Amino acid sequence: MTGAGFAARAAELDAADPLAPLRDRFVLDGDVTAYFDGNSLGRPLRVTGEALAAFTAHDWGSRLIRSWDEQWVELPTVLGDRLGALLVGAAAGQTLVGDSTSVLLYKLARAAVDGAGGGRDEIVVSDDDFPTDRYLLEGIAAETGRTLRWIPTDPDGGVSVEQVAEAVGPRTALVVLSHVAYRSGYLADAAAITAVVHDAGALVCWDLCHSVGAVPVALDAWGADLAVGCTYKYLGGGPGSPAFAYVAARHHGVLRQPVQGWFGRSDPFAMAAGYVPAEGVRQFLSGTPPVLALVPLRVGLDLYAEAGIGAVRAKSEALTAFAVEIADAAGLEVASPRDPARRGGHVTLRHPDARAIVAELWRRGVVPDFRAPDGIRIGLAPLSTSFAEVASGLGALTRL
């Protein structure tokens, strides 16, 4: 099919897309003609600015410190419960929002390792997982005298159930894996992997950064122990927006988080001597929550409540399939799973001149992501990306 043919096909797909009207809710101004980095930093919603202005005028400007008693103290768990119900399949009382992904991952992983029984001195991780995951676990292993057991991972794919089964055993304390691989978009079989880890007597922590808001997640149904994820990709929380953590209810009061800040105490405003952990998931809070930064997340979750994660996933699969079709027609090498059921919300293409190509595309208003050594990552945010955008952006790439 020619470029004109793909453009015509994109117009048909956009016309039939039930989520297409939601695209106009996003800020689409500027010189970018095709934005393929929504899985790194999502576009802001137009209402986000209004929400921040209203927050500044009323919640902060008018109510001032009274807002702590009126709403802010409970905000990390209120938003956590909403995110849990809408997007990650978590019953109330198990999810909170606050801190960065790195900080929350450290707290959960360290708590899991510290709580492991005798002889469990290994942490299992993929050797191609996102860098912060690997670096944090290296640090925890050094701090606690544990050993990292690396799962060798194909960068075009991801970690399989069989690989996990081979890696875990009586010495395993914790397994940390990404649900969607940041490089290839490979979608792990989380339910089966969780069962394998539990059969070995260990805990599992899922990194949901590249899956939340793009693919359905079912933490409770999987039997997951722990999970972390960010909100600045598909959820529109904005650059550096707070992350979220999930701790299954059965671990409350059992695992003890290592960063004992005042907001995780049973009664933070008592200012009392000694640290007494709060009940439930609140015990994994540490310092004062970033209230202002939670405003964009709140409006982002409103949009997901309207769209529904099922419809979002259906469009995500259609977008990535369309991208693969265009790439195949142009003879580009696809470095992501072919099966949509094993693919998250992005597609990676391989080219020896990837770095230079991405730089030139940015100059032309087409914004994909470069991933060393030779990857061009096409991140397609279902709520803000149109099929016409995919056709025009990849058309520009194929003409280079």
UniProtKB/TrEMBL annotation:
EC number from the UniProt entry: 3.7.1.3
Cofactor(s) named in the record: pyridoxal 5'-phosphate
Stated role: Catalyzes the cleavage of L-kynurenine (L-Kyn) and L-3-hydroxykynurenine (L-3OHKyn) into anthranilic acid (AA) and 3-hydroxyanthranilic acid (3-OHAA), respectively.
Protein source organism: Actinomycetospora endophytica
Catalysed reaction equations from the record: 3-hydroxy-L-kynurenine + H2O = 3-hydroxyanthranilate + L-alanine + H(+); L-kynurenine + H2O = anthranilate + L-alanine + H(+)
Quaternary state and interactors: Homodimer.
Pathway: Cofactor biosynthesis; NAD(+) biosynthesis; quinolinate from L-kynurenine: step 2/3; Amino-acid degradation; L-kynurenine degradation; L-alanine and anthranilate from L-kynurenine: step 1/1
Molecular function terms from GO: transaminase activity
Family: Belongs to the kynureninase family.
InterPro entries found in the cross-reference section: Kynureninase, PyrdxlP-dep_Trfase, PyrdxlP-dep_Trfase_major, PyrdxlP-dep_Trfase_small
Protein name listed in UniProt: Kynureninase
Origin superkingdom: Bacteria
Keywords: Aminotransferase, Hydrolase, Pyridine nucleotide biosynthesis, Pyridoxal phosphate, Transferase
